[in-house]
Design goal:
By secondary structure, the chain is α/β, with parallel strands linked by helices. The longest helix has 20 residues. The protein is globular.
Length: 194
């Protein structure tokens, strides 16, 4: 029996979210949580505790974000602080980390940026994870959807070919024949998968 592979997708904004995607022969599992915050910043201790409370992910896929030209100084600083906190927590937990630019993972799923892209991402998450539809039921759940899609991106593009329980199916939808994407796949997990 092939062991479960777990990927944690993190949408690092203050209103962001985390999604733990488990890939096992019996089908995928998905656990989602909103980003913990305190005093309008990410609560680093609560974030670390949340991740430690879940089954340990084999990899973390973190959206590598930066300020947008339209952002004000405070908004850009706050966003950078949120990203840095999420990245620091991931590194401190010593879980292999992959940074992915929004343009890369959104292009993989053929999503646009902006508000219409967020709604399209939520709709895609509803289609790809129908058993978890309640997690994405509200319009404001687009950050949860993005975290789930980041984890799915990691499964489809970053894991070596043949490392998934069923390399032709991820999230209930066929992938590209189990072929790993060009580029460097993530290294195998250091711990035995149980």
């Amino acid at each position: 029996m092939t062991p479960e592979v777990r990927l944690l997708g993190i949408d690092p904004g203050l209103t962001g979210a985390l999604a733990l995607l488990g890939l096992a022969p019996g089908g995928p599992s998905l656990t989602v949580a909103d980003m913990p915050e305190v005093h309008k910043t990410i609560d680093a201790a609560a974030l670390a505790e949340l991740i430690r409370g879940w089954p340990r992910p084999d990899f973390i896929v973190l959206e590598e974000v930066g300020p947008q030209p339209r952002d004000g100084v405070r908004q850009a600083f706050s966003f950078g602080q949120s990203y840095a906190t999420a990245r620091t927590v991931a590194l401190m937990l010593e879980i292999p980390l992959h940074l992915v630019r929004p343009q890369a993972w959104k292009a993989h799923f053929r999503l646009r940026g902006g508000p219409e892209g967020k709604e399209a991402g939520r709709a895609l998450a509803l289609r790809r994870f129908p058993a978890s539809a309640k997690l994405f039921a509200r319009k404001k759940d687009h950050n949860r959807a993005e975290a789930a899609l980041l984890a799915l991106y990691g499964a489809e593009r970053l894991l070596p070919a043949g490392s998934l329980p069923d390399p032709d199916r991820v999230g209930g939808v066929a992938t590209a024949g189990g072929v790993a994407a060009p580029g460097q796949p993530l290294p195998p997990p250091e711990r035995p998968l149980a």
